[in-house]
């Protein structure tokens, strides 16, 4: 680790949480330089839905490289980009009757959110955007303004403005009543509130603590957005691409977002790619080249991302996700039930299990405890990351392709680490 400690910026984070040097990886395992194998329940924070070094994608990328495919193309038209777009349209959009336009930007989630904000403000001519407590939308100034986490916000060094914050459904003061109160405030010309350009929401707040919104509340957000002339934007960056057991986390809810932000898993192999789905009449507001970015033409990402979409040609992987999710929930529920109330002064401090599909959170209430469990998991060969306020939630987000044996072994390690840390 000396090279990292001596030369790399103090900003480094995960290499402190997982203090070893990883040398290779395959599906749900990473192996370090001394040959120790770690189960990966973190999977690049939602990037590696299809596992490390997915063999199908690797083969497709090797063929692409050997054929001298265009690896970088700004946003010029290429064969691989057309193949990706066509596959996305036939696999994801057409079966859902969606007619969205695909906008590519610099290949990170933050870039996708910035582009969505820009388009929403441009279309509506409004400045303020509604974001929710505990939301995570990125680190660049616009997306950071939407992000709730105080540590990240304070690092901005400038005011993070033009955001109106409402409580997420599951947060204190959340639920339908707070949306209705905001509606009434907006209707009152003397409320001092500006009508918003957009409502930006995660259906499941991943970094925010695996907080799951229900369809009814999401519909209420969408209805409110429509009624007040704002756009309804869903940030699918961490929970899309099959994570919850369907391609979109909002599939089956009957929602009709104006913009969907995608990144992380869309590139398949960990190859970076970000993409917004824009309703066509909104997308028409963009002038050519108005939101540019050098890395919008990632040949390798298009190849791997296209291959990733073939996992949605049939129901096999999504059925597996449902089955594996059940295993995860049953172990976590059992663990939560075992643990006595750790509260004091009448405060409920019971563990809670939250999630959908293969994103599950074990809320252990106490950030220091979660950190100790994650450290113990690392010592026993499992990579798992805390999230939520004060890091109190252990987030399980393994590759969707994890073999059952590995999943069971990882769950066992986690359960043992929780018990022993208690
Ligand atoms: N939105 C969500 C929901 C995310 O989880 C993240 C990343 N954790 C982002 C946006 C930002 O993505 P990136 O780190 O690629 O900029």
What's the helix and strand layout?
Elements: H1 2-7, H2 14-17, E1 22-26, E2 29-32, E3 37-40, H3 43-46, H4 55-66, H5 79-93, E4 101-104, H6 109-124, E5 129-132, H7 141-146, H8 150-154, E6 163-166, H9 176-187, E7 198-201, E8 204-205, E9 211-212, H10 215-227, E10 231-235, E11 259-262, E12 275-278, H11 280-283, H12 299-309, H13 316-338, E13 352-356, E14 359-363, H14 367-379, E15 382-383, E16 385-387, E17 393-396, H15 404-421
Parallel strand pairs: 3-15, 5-6, 5-7, 7-10, 10-11
Antiparallel strand pairs: 1-2, 2-3, 4-12, 8-9, 11-12, 13-14, 14-17, 16-17
Bound molecules: 4'-deoxy-4'-aminopyridoxal-5'-phosphate (PMP).
Q: What best-fitting shape do the alpha-carbon axes yield?
A: globular
Q: Which class do the helix and strand fractions yield?
A: alpha/beta
Level-2 CATH architecture of the largest domain? 3-Layer(aba) Sandwich
Annotation field: number of helices: 15
For the record, the CATH class of the largest domain is Alpha Beta
Measured as a percent range, the helix fraction is 25-40%
Radius of gyration: 21 Å
Q: What separation lies between the terminal Cα atoms?
A: 30 Å
Averaged pLDDT, please?
A: 96
Give the amount of beta strand, in percent.
15-25%
Task: Give the number of DSSP strands.
Answer: 17
**Largest sheet at a glance?**
7 strands, mixed
- Low-pLDDT ranges: none
Task: List the ligand species.
Answer: 4'-deoxy-4'-aminopyridoxal-5'-phosphate
CATH topology of the largest domain: Aspartate Aminotransferase, domain 2
Q: In total, how many domains does the architecture comprise?
A: 2
CATH superfamily of the largest domain, by name, is Type I PLP-dependent aspartate aminotransferase-like (Major domain)
Strand arrangement, largest sheet?
4-12-11-10-7-5-6
